[in-house]
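Troubleshooting entry. The earlier prediction with adenosine-3',5'-cyclic-monophosphate gave an output that would not parse, so I re-checked the input for stray whitespace and re-submitted. Clean input:
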Amino acid sequence: IHRREFVVTWSMVASVPLFRTLGASSIAEIMRYLSAQSVPAGTLIVRRGDLAQSMYFIAEGEVEIELPNEAVRLGAGQFFGEMAILHKARRSANVRAVEPTKLLILDAYDLQSLIVRNPEVGEAIRSVAASRKELSAES
Ligand code: CMP
């Protein structure tokens, strides 16, 4: 994977709907946890069956979740890779960049600290993970 770091800015973090309700000190804390990576179109970011170490927020661009019967696209402000971490499972699907995409990467360990300090963020991520899991159980 071709990696190119970019600077994580305040506005990138604040543009993620999940973080929008947080106060300044929480956003500053999250900025310190996040690392940045740009990937070209076509990059396989997450491989089904792999062990998981991090989750991803989309700062810019678009990714495709390759589900067995359909492909779901996620764009700026949305996140993925949370299921394997929260459910302590293997990656449930391939995730591929469909455009040049800027990702904010959060390590599993830092996600746990973030959840402890911002329980409402943890609840929101858990509820998205649960509804995605339900969707894949149906298909
Ligand atoms: P994870 O299992 O870690 O890796 C693949 C990711 O694809 C998964 O986390 C979710 O973030 C995402 N994903 C899985 N199923 C769906 C779905 N039905 N809708 C949107 N995203 C999904």
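This one parsed fine. Residues 46, 52, 65, 67, 72, 80-84, 91-93, 95, 132, 135-136 surround adenosine-3',5'-cyclic-monophosphate (CB under 6 Å).
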